[in-house]
Specification:
Radius of gyration: 19 Å
Oligomer: single chain
CATH class: Mainly Alpha
CATH architecture: Alpha/alpha barrel
Structural class: alpha+beta
């Protein structure tokens, strides 16, 4: 199927219900959401899938997903790169953007559920996670991408990873303000990180080949709110022809003839964040051709070979489809999370007020 054009107030609930059910079918009784049946689970994609469940109204299942992650948190606030059940699948590293993403997921779930008790229960988890992440911030503002198995920092930073952390710090700040917790240093760290992303390109990709060939390095700083307004639109325009294949989607990597559905969904939200609603609607309309009969979506399509590759239909791709649909239709109270920067401030009476930052 192709040509699904979405607009505000017209969330295709019946059409996307099988996509929600697909995530549910992969979720284990423990709350864990692996990539697919028999696959491993990493903290970032687990949260992406949980956000899809929240959008689909499966609030209990989403909460179980966050509780599963909370139960596996290490004393320093981090998680290993991947798990299979409660067993560690990859003990070689712990990635900072994976760890930070819990704040984005928890805030997203709260915006939809308005469950203050959930926010209070998850606060120590978020607090420890952000503490771990900020322990890896350098004096220049960037945040190391990972620590190795022994806890030593890897010694380099990623534009995409740091952009994701930038959004997570926004969400973590909002959680803290909502709960009346003083974490002013988190905003200071976020400001320093934003300056590094905008003005210190030399602090990224220092020890390996530049990752600028990947589309996420192009659009993620817009998706995360590092660039807004005119700057965001200029950034997306600058490399549009390198990454976007008409009627197919967004390439994962410039040199590879491969469009990926999750990255295309994230580009949709980046376009909305930049104020380009028309192109966001158009790109999303291309993606339904990659849907299967059970509501899941293929990872991607190889243009030259004319084949779906790899032979995988990940839960996190389904989550991204739901996030983009929500953003386009304004279906839930969390629909604007990736389309704008929202920082809460606190009145003298202790009540939070919403400040929108362009």
């Amino acid at each position: 199927m192709s040509g699904l054009y979405l607009s505000r107030g017209l969330f295709p609930e019946e059409f996307l219900r099988p996509t929600v059910d697909f995530i549910l079918s992969c979720q284990r009784p423990s709350g864990e959401i692996p990539w697919f049946e028999g696959g491993y689970t990493d903290p970032w994609d687990h949260v992406e899938s949980a956000m899809g469940l929240s959008i689909g109204g499966e609030l209990r299942a989403a909460r179980r997903a966050y509780e599963w992650l909370a139960a596996l948190q290490l004393p320093d606030g981090s998680w290993w790169a991947s798990y299979r059940g409660e067993e560690i699948d990859n003990a070689n590293r712990r990635e900072s953007n994976f760890v930070a993403y819990i704040a984005t997921g928890v805030w997203h779930h709260y915006l939809i559920s308005e469950d203050m008790e959930f926010l209070r229960v998850m606060w120590p988890v978020v607090d420890r996670a952000i503490g771990f992440v900020l322990s890896l911030q350098s004096e220049h503002g960037e945040i190391d991408w990972a620590v190795d198995g022994s806890g030593q920092a890897k010694g380099d930073a990623l534009v995409t990873g740091c952009s994701s952390i930038y959004k997570s710090l926004e969400c973590a700040h909002n959680i803290a303000v909502t709960l009346g917790e003083d974490r002013a240093r988190w905003l200071t760290a976020r400001t320093r990180l934003g300056k590094a992303l905008r003005h210190k390109p030399e602090r990224f990709d220092r020890t390996w080949e530049s990752k600028s060939r990947y589309s996420m390095d192009w659009f993620y700083p817009v998706l995360a709110g590092v660039y807004t307004g005119v700057d965001a639109r200029a950034r997306l325009a600058s490399r549009w022809d390198e990454f976007v294949e008409d009627n197919l989607g967004c390439r994962c990597e410039k040199q590879q003839p491969w469009v990926t559905i999750a990255e295309s969904c994230e580009l949709v939200m980046a376009l909305l964040a930049a104020g380009d609603h028309a192109r966001a609607v158009e790109v999303y309309s291309w993606l339904q051709q990659w849907r299967t009969s059970d509501g899941s979506y293929w990872t991607g399509y190889q243009l030259v070979e004319d084949l779906l590759w790899p032979d995988e239909r990940p839960t996190w791709t389904a989550g991204a489809i739901l996030l983009a649909a929500d953003a386009l239709t304004k279906h839930t109270a969390a629909s604007g999370l990736f389309c704008s920067v929202t920082l809460l401030d606190e009145h003298e009476d202790g009540r939070a007020r919403r400040i929108l930052v362009d």
